[in-house]
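Hey, why these numbers?
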Amino acid sequence: MEKDAKIYVAGHQGMVGSAIIRELRRQGYESIVTRTHQELDLCRQEAVERFFETEKPEYVFLAAARVGGIGANSEALADFMYDNMILEMNVIHSAWKNNCKKLEFLGSSCIYPRMAPQPMKEDCLLTSALEKTISEICASMKSLMRC
């Protein structure tokens, strides 16, 4: 990336997003665009499209997500999955439509096999049971889809 490139960090207030911001600044990147959830609800397609059309970021780090931990995941089941898929698709599609040069999409460790060797290689994906709460969400989705 060029040092003057416009970079959007979605989820900049979270643990991973804030670390990305710190590292970008440490490396000398200054044209970093951020929006809080109150300023831009990534689940609202029209708002995301307007943001990308206006800001035209060249690079996107997608670290935004609805998170809540194991307890909240167990309670909400499909809600977290639904909201996260909506916001991810809105950002990815708008980045593509607005000719973003590169998008880095980050996923939770809960989507990976529980006992995968570390550091995990890509060929470990979908090779064993997922983290318990993710498995419960997938099972709930399957039962909902049968209705």
Observations:
- The mean pLDDT is 84.
- The two ends are 48 Å apart (CA to CA).
- The longest helix spans residues 78-97.
